[in-house]
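Request: Have a read of the protein record below and say how the chain folds.
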Amino acid sequence: MNVYEFVNSSFDISSFSFLLSFSSLPSFIFFNILLTLLLFLIILFIQFTINFFLLFINLFNYSTYSVLDASG
């Protein structure tokens, strides 16, 4: 058995029948909405994490510059 026959035998379209049936379409839409919200929350978390580190880098730079300016 080569790779093509193995992939062909292991791929069964009936396992993906929930994508095609109309009865489970609301659950599929609900799953898509949950996946979209999860992706949105992950992106939001990454954004806040990057902004948090940039804020502290900016505050550190501002404090060093203000110390240098105060010392003349």
